Give the backbone structure.
Amino acid sequence: MDGLRIAEKSIELLCAPGLHSPTTAYARALNQAVWQEREERPLAERLEPFKAEFLATARRSLT
């Protein structure tokens, strides 16, 4: 998880400021997936909204 936090901060420094919130939300969702008990919903289904928001924001920042 330390590597993920470092990577999150690297994205914040290298990319648009608007990426911080979606990156943090996605990192927290990944952290919960690793450390929390399994839920009935598939992992991909739980992470998809956070991943989609992060990728959409990243794409917008590149244009």
User: Anything to note?
Assistant: The helical segments are 2-14, 20-35, 43-62. The mean pLDDT is 81. The chain has one domain: 2-62.
